[in-house]
Amino acid sequence: MRVDRAVAVASVISISCVVAVVVWAGDVYAVLGDSDPGRLVSLAFGLVRTVANAAATVAVGALAFGVFVVPAPPKRAQLTAHAYAAVRLGAGAATVWAGSAVAAVVLSAADASGQPVAVAVEHLGGLVAATEEPKAWICSAVAAALVAAGARATLTWTTSALLLVPALAGVLAPVIAGHVGNGAWHDVATNAMVWHVPAAAVWIGALVALRGHLRRSGADDVVLTRYYRLTTWCVVVLVLSGSVAGVVLVGSAMSWSGYLVLLLLKLVACAAVLLLRAFLGRRWPLGVELAAVGLAVGASTGLTHLVPPAWSLGAPSPQETVLGFDLPDPPSAAELLLGWRFDLVLGLGAVVLAVAYVVGVRVLRRRGDSWPIGRTAAWLLGCAVVLVVTSSGIGRYASAMFSTHMVAHMSLTMLAPVLLVLGGPITLALRVLPVGPRQWVTALLHCRAARLVAHPALAATVFVGSYYVLYFSGLFGAAMRFHWAHQLMNVHFLVSGYVFFWLVTGVDRAPRPLPHLARLGLLFAVMPFHAFFGVILMNMQTVIAENFYRTLRLSWLPDLLTDQRLGGGIAWATGEIPVLVVVLALLHQWARADRREAVRFDRATDTGHDDRLAAYNAMLAELSGRKN
Description:
By secondary structure, the chain is an all-alpha fold. It has 30 helices and no strands.
């Protein structure tokens, strides 16, 4: 197999950078009061982490390249030869990723405990249970194995696209379990990494896949145009999110240090690629871009070995350790409405989706097509609800108070999804998007995974059953300890609510459309379980996630059980208004459908072409023939 020299040079640059950092840094463990596992363990873990990170980014980016960059056939059933080659590259990279992630489980356990590898292997189960990074590497290894097996076996575009979900989860896991998940402001740093890591993976992996594509097929204007369009946005996101996370990890300790030098080296390398692309266009050599990528990957991996300067500024408070910020005062109306802490995941996502929707509506109207103002209002209100409950004082106090958490939960599960599905975003996308992206949306809507997720029984069970599984087990208390788990919980609330109400009252056609009577029955079948959940909370005698709430030491919240019962009352009462909106919207849709059917029937009758009457006459003729 021919080796790409530029890729080899980039790999040497990354590895050299990591080795130099480990050798130069010396004993970084003493700063944290940890035991030193030895230079050999540190060096081995740095190299294995570099290989795992590089392979993971290639796997993600190669999949994205095969799915979104390489032109696909009109029906998007089977992958083209070039797309298949990119997906196979992703499968090979994922195999390397899985093996190196397994090795990283042992080495991270040894590194965290300050023990030699032999001792870490002997006590691996206990070390994994006691530390978070080995758990993250296990998740990464499982995701990599799934991607490797799926990408090697698939021939379809849809499966290749869906494999991006576990791939992105696997590449994120070790990052959010590392430095960004600790200390003051770790919530902001973690949110920034949710944008940073996927952007880096798509850019780097797509670049490697592009090199292989150009070697096989020569210059390809369509592929190059799509590649530059996709990765330019990735580099912009990478630089901006990396700067945010860097500010958090450096803090006010802005004196020159190895950490600050590596951080600036990484950001400058990425920004230089962006600027030189703008000046040189396609004359910009991809080999030089790969060298810059190698330097950025090496610097990024080296940063994980060093202690962030912000950690030397003093020990964080218990609330900063768990939440990322302090809550010295009880919530007031002014604090809930004006005490904003912008959520870079859901809050920014809501803003982006609102802007994209408005742009889509303007495109429609510019071309002379109409779009109902009610749908636009519903979508914008839904995005506003998501923004407010995640980024205002409600979002801040939801992390520390069960009652405020329940306000956010009900808003994300019941109120925002109802408004969002009434906006009809899929219909708008299908009318606005160009042919390629429109085909992507259509293919995903008609795939087996979408039909499974949108099955009424499954959607209803997940929608209401997750309440009981989450709160009446130890899962809620475990999830609240980590910002990433809290964010994942919020995403689950929003997505499960959206899928359920999409089936009940959504404007967009679902993969499994239901008649209006069945929709109404599904709604009324689920709502009693929701009300019963609130009643249980109001009558419980034990505190859910008590250890977590005690850890925060909120002096102004002495009675956790009373606050929990208030949360139960909120859960019981707040479901009524969204349900009323849903019933009214459903009855309105039902009436409109009946009017359309009546108009169609009258038109058919007037022209003498009534399909139902013809079918009835055909049935009578068939029965008459059987008697004869």
